[in-house]
Amino acid sequence: MFDEPSQSPIARIPELRWLRNIIVERALTRGDYLLSGGARSDYYIDKFKLFADPHVLRRIARLFGPIISEINPDVIGGTELGGVIIATAVSQMTGLPMIVVRKQPKQYGAFAEEYVEGPIVRGQHVFLLEDVVTSGRELLAAKARLEELNLRVTPHAVISRGLAPVSSLIQFALPRGEGGPRQN
Known about the structure:
By secondary structure, the protein is α/β, with parallel strands linked by helices. It has one domain (about 15-184): Rossmann fold (3-Layer(aba) Sandwich), CATH 3.40.50.2020. The chain contains 6 helices and 9 strands. The strands form 2 sheets. A 7-stranded mixed sheet has the order 5-4-3-6-7-8-9, with helices on both faces. Helix 3 packs across helix 5 (about 80-95). The chain starts with 12 loop residues before the first helix and ends with a strand.
């Protein structure tokens, strides 16, 4: 697993403060945006501006260390597309195998019509990762797909915009029309 010892939430505050600051500095844009769940927002978090920097991606992946130590999963899962990037980084850091959960089944190849790619065994515990969630609909749909395959699933996101019933590293929301971050 990780070389770092498990940390209490209080000990992680500087890291979460760093995450909030890096989101504001590198990934936050203002405007009028349609979000994946259909809601409109006057800000958007472009997670690829975070994930493109290998140092930032590695540091975000490390934030999952205490959670992984606590829940002890067998497999790291990633939702298509941003969750796959995080899951890959976490898999690399932990040595745990990784799977991908697609939004739509693949239409070609040896495993056409399947939502899940990668090695799974009935009864395994999957730590399922998503990048940014607003409603959590896609993450919860991916969780349900894995549960249909008789897997135990713990879903988690890097960033929640505060509306999803999903655990995340950081709850990030901006009041409409304001420039500063609000951490719930």
